[in-house]
């Protein structure tokens, strides 16, 4: 059995290395993004992660898809993708999902705001503003301890830093009301002070992972840190680069980027347990997509050096493309979870597609796409 496993892993590595030998061309980036986007729309109501019914359209899983899909819509040669997203928003009256304080249920607000920027229709924005105004004036007072019965009314798990903070940053950018920014920064700092490991420059998924080891290594979940890294980029996109707030986020981002460069696998992906690639050799494309996105974003914005980080983006993107099927399904997406686990070539998830489309949007620009 071990011989068979080694053969499979070797085959995966070989396929990835072959794909990395190919030059990245903007037209080809756009082509594969279209293929993935079209496959996902066609399979939008499929079952994932052993679900008994499809994800709710306003669920965080789909919210993460929309974050990437709206980036692709801005690149596409027709309005098909904007209209698909717009129809979803109209169907649900531009409401956020069911839990008022829970960050996961805020994720779809990122897409609503981008559609508002496209169409300038106030109804797209009003429910999100109303809910966030309520939260701002009635903030949760719970602790960040994971065993708190009402623990997720604040951002006490690292995934939350992708889901909700960019919405606050976007509202600030649109309105100029600094109260949105001040609230977001205060809560982000509280989470970072709680979950960020200053030695490893990575985030614990939540308090329950602190002090635990997996094969002698600290447990830093790949997609969890991918949520954070992509979230940082999406937040900074909304801020003045000369502001103190931007510099705060940039400092964290650069610490993480340096670490991610050190721990990227030779095949181009990042292991599901970031410090344990020896024990998690299977590719995982959702976390790896977020890292490729964030690193390419940093080079495009001039905050990372291309000579230092460019090869990591190239390896990352070619590894990801190597796991896209001919009909456009992104494979090796780890199912819903909160810790390192398994992924399979024939298993996908909507948030993996969203992460891939985000990555492609920045890789396209990095290699000269207009």
UniProtKB/TrEMBL annotation:
The keyword Hydrolase applies. It comes from the Bacteria. Keywords: Hydrolase. InterPro entries: 6-hairpin_glycosidase_sf, 6hp_glycosidase-like_sf, Glyco_hydro_88, PolySaccharide_Degr_Enz. Pfam families: Glyco_hydro_88. One of its GO terms (molecular function) is hydrolase activity. The keyword Cell inner membrane does not apply. SUPFAM superfamilies: Six-hairpin glycosidases. This is Glycoside hydrolase family 88 protein. It comes from Maribacter arenosus.
């Amino acid at each position: 059995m071990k011989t068979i496993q080694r053969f499979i892993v070797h085959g995966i590595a070989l396929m990835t290395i072959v794909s990395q030998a190919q030059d990245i061309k903007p037209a080809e980036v756009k082509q594969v993004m279209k293929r993935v986007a079209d496959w996902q729309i066609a399979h939008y109501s499929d079952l994932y992660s052993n679900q008994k019914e499809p994800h709710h359209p306003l669920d965080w899983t789909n919210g993460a898809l929309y974050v990437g899909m709206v980036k692709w819509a801005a690149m596409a040669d027709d309005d098909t993708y904007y209209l698909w997203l717009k129809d979803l928003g109209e169907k649900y009256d531009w409401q956020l999902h069911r839990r008022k304080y829970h960050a996961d249920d805020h994720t779809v607000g990122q897409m609503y705001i981008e559609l508002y920027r496209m169409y300038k229709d106030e109804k797209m924005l009003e429910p999100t503003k109303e809910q966030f105004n309520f939260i701002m004036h009635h903030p949760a007072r719970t602790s960040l301890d994971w065993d708190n019965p009402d623990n997720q009314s604040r951002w006490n798990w690292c995934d939350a830093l992708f889901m909700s903070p960019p919405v606050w940053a976007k509202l600030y950018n649109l309105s100029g009301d600094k109260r949105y920014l001040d609230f977001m920064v205060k809560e982000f700092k509280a989470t970072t002070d709680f979950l960020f490991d200053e030695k490893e420059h990575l985030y614990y998924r939540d308090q329950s992972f602190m002090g635990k080891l997996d094969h002698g290594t600290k447990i830093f979940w790949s997609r969890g840190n991918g949520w954070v890294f992509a979230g940082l980029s999406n937040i900074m996109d909304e801020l003045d680069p000369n502001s103190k707030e931007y510099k705060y986020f940039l400092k964290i981002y650069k610490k993480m980027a340096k670490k991610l460069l050190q721990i990227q696998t030779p095949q181009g992906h990042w292991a599901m347990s970031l410090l344990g690639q020896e024990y998690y050799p299977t590719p995982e494309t959702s976390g790896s997509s977020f890292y490729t996105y964030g690193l390419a974003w940093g080079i495009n914005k001039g905050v990372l050096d291309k000579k230092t980080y460019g090869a990591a983006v190239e390896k990352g993107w070619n590894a990801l493309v190597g796991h896209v099927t001919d009909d456009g399904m992104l494979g090796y997406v780890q199912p819903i979870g909160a810790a390192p686990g398994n992924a399979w070539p024939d298993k996908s998830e909507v948030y993996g597609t969203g992460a891939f489309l985000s990555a492609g949007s920045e890789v396209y620009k990095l290699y000269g796409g207009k």
